[in-house]
Design brief:
606 residues, alpha+beta, six-stranded mixed beta sheet, five-stranded antiparallel beta sheet, 33% helix
Length: 606
């Protein structure tokens, strides 16, 4: 076990630039660690640019290694010592897994690893090692002041507008040799950031081709695999094909369809020989070398990457190792993209289940709805409903749950069905709010009791943030409509919700309810309702706070009765035209996109 180097106790300790962070074991961790270290070193005086580059490359490699091979949260500690040396320590919670290193090792791994691995650290650090503790493992590295001498290369533009900017010039042995020294380190670090920021696996594979062709290979192809069946999803053909010459892509694709990769047993990442598709590459491509790399993340195969280079020289060992390291990052990005896609699908299905399939049509009334959730990847906190309640009654609701995501979905999943049930059982507006308020309070009490029992069962250990009972407040505008000859009778109540507004044909605007307490806050709260008659041409506007609290600097949309003024300008418009105008005014109120969910319902007596 190698000990982490520290200053001797007898030496005087000077003020050191240091920092610490705990990052989730996700593809975003390497980029986050690099950003933190870069910001810290930028504030430290006298740090050479080369040391900064080397430190970022080492931090990125160690964090990536921990994410790929341990998969736990990652602790990153760094310090700039008085001597100018930079020390970084990267710890994970999987002490049984030593860091993967292609340069030696004890041969105890089930799967051989031929990537660069810790070669990057070995090249740049004057010393490094591994420290094992109970329940954790730490890999440390110490970089000397000024960095280690080696081939110099210009760092790529941090903005990284295109992936091709990262790699060396094609087919130049001297260029490859220089670039594979220090430039490859920046390549891997920047490629990690570029891939980690993508949540679409098709875009990940597209970037893979840009990174590899034509800089590292003349052509490459990616076969993606279904995680459930571990079979190629393209009926034998590759999902994406790239060639330095666009004219060769279709011929190459046809040739590769006849030779799909045949991975061996186990999870071996490669490289493995692949048959050379000579006839598809023309006279200059008669000879060449092709290698296949299995894309593996989280212990599961996600696909295969095949690269090819024409000529008899084949690939240099440094290039094959570099591609394998890149393949690790590609696999990690594909895995993250698939996980995001699964979550987005679940959220979309859940969102559809929390909202009505269609709004009811009411005799003598027209309606229009605008519903724009802010977060496209998760359940919204806003909801609406408009449904028949029997006996010539129709009911409507516009609500807003405190928070978003699963907790909001739980509240909406309780509230909307109970609203319908209570309304169809004949309960009036105020009684519906009374019972819904008690339902939310009872549910919160049960959740708190369950959390307390779980805490006792866990021996008093603290509950992780987000695992305990969550406060479930609900603002709700709820009403009942009864059409009659010459108008619509409306009974409604607002519980902590923006008050509804009525627009008359003459342009006057008035509120149609009084403010009351949020649901789920006060035990035994008694709610009341108000009744109004909507005459032909009257329009009732119901909104959530995504409309009234839309911000532009320090101003809000409803400051100075802004919503009422906006509605007064809608005189003579249909329900759909009113909804669209209010939506447009809310969006135009600020140059930035809305930061909250937006829902509005317009009901107009005909």
């Amino acid at each position: 076990m190698a000990a982490i180097p520290t200053q001797r106790e007898s030496e005087p300790r000077a003020s050191e630039a240091r920092g610490r962070a705990t990052l989730p074991g996700s593809p975003l961790a390497p980029g986050a660690a690099r950003a933190l270290v870069q910001a810290a070193l930028a504030e430290a005086p006298g740090v050479s640019p080369r040391l900064v580059d080397d430190a970022l490359a080492v931090v990125s490699e160690l964090v990536t290694n921990a994410v790929v091979h341990a998969g736990t949260d990652v602790d990153v500690d760094w310090r700039l010592e008085e001597t100018g040396a930079f020390v970084v320590e990267v710890g994970d919670r999987h002490p049984s897994r030593a860091p993967r290193d292609a340069l030696g090792g004890d041969g105890s791994y089930d799967t051989a690893e031929y990537g660069r691995g810790l070669r990057l650290v070995t090249t740049l650090a004057e010393s490094w090692g591994v420290t094992y503790r109970a329940g954790a493992k730490t890999v440390w590295a110490r970089l000397p002041p000024g960095g280690v001498d080696g081939p110099d290369a210009s760092a790529p533009d941090a903005a990284l507008e295109v992936a091709e900017d990262l790699a060396p010039q094609p087919h130049r042995a001297d260029g490859d040799r220089d670039w594979l020294g220090r430039g490859a380190l920046s390549f891997l670090a920047e490629a990690s950031d570029l891939l980690a920021g993508q949540l679409d696996e098709n875009l990940v594979t597209a970037l893979t081709g840009q990174l590899i062709v034509p800089r590292l290979a003349d052509w490459c192809a990616v076969w993606l695999e279904d995680e459930a069946t571990v079979r190629g999803r393209g009926a034998g053909g590759p999902d994406r094909v790239w060639h330095a010459s666009e004219n060769r892509i279709e011929e190459l694709r046809c040739a590769l369809e006849k030779e799909p990769p045949c991975p061996g047993e186990g999870l071996r990442s490669g490289p493995e020989p692949y048959p050379w598709p000579g006839p598809a590459l023309g006279p200059q491509g008669a000879d060449g070398t092709a290698l296949a790399y299995r894309l593996i993340a989280g212990g599961r195969p996600l696909g295969t990457l095949v690269i090819g280079r024409c000529g008899t020289a084949g690939f240099r060992e440094e290039v094959t190792g570099l591609v394998e390291d890149l393949g690790r990052r590609v696999a990690l990005a594909i895995g993250a993209a698939r996980q995001y896609a699964r979550q987005a699908t679940i959220s979309a299905v859940l969102q559809r289940g929390l909202l009505p399939g269609a709004v009811a049509e009411i005799p003598g009334m027209s309606s229009a709805l605008v519903y724009e959730p802010c977060d496209k990847g998760g359940p919204s906190g806003d909801f609406y409903d408009l449904f028949p309640a029997g006996d010539g009654r129709w009911c409507f609701a516009v609500g807003d749950v405190q928070g978003k995501g699963p907790e909001a979905a739980v509240v909406i999943g309780l509230a909307r069905p109970w609203l319908r049930l209570l309304a169809r059982e004949g309960y009036r507006v105020a009684d519906v709010l009374d019972r819904l308020n008690q339902l939310l309070l009872d549910d919160a009490t049960e959740a708190a009791d369950a959390a307390a029992r779980a805490l006792v069962a866990a021996g008093g250990r603290p509950v992780a943030a987000g695992d305990g009972p969550q406060t479930r407040f609900l603002s709700l505008l709820y009403g009942e409509l009864t059409p009659y000859d010459g108008g619509v009778h409306c009974t409604l109540a607002s519980a902590g919700h923006p008050l509804p507004l009525v627009l008359s044909p003459d342009g006057t605007v008035r509120t149609a309810a009084r403010p009351q307490t949020l649901l789920g806050v006060v035990e035994d709260e008694t709610y009341t309702s108000e009744s109004i008659d909507l005459r032909p041409g009257d329009s009732l506007l119901c909104v959530t706070d995504g409309v009234t609290e839309r911000r532009s600097g320090s101003r809000q949309f409803d400051d100075g009765d802004g919503l009422a003024h906006a509605l007064s300008g809608c005189t003579g418009l249909s329900a759909e035209e009113i909804a669209e105008r209010i939506r447009r005014l809310v969006h135009d109120f600020s140059g930035s996109p809305p930061e909250d969910d937006l829902a509005l319902l317009v009901l107009q007596a005909e």
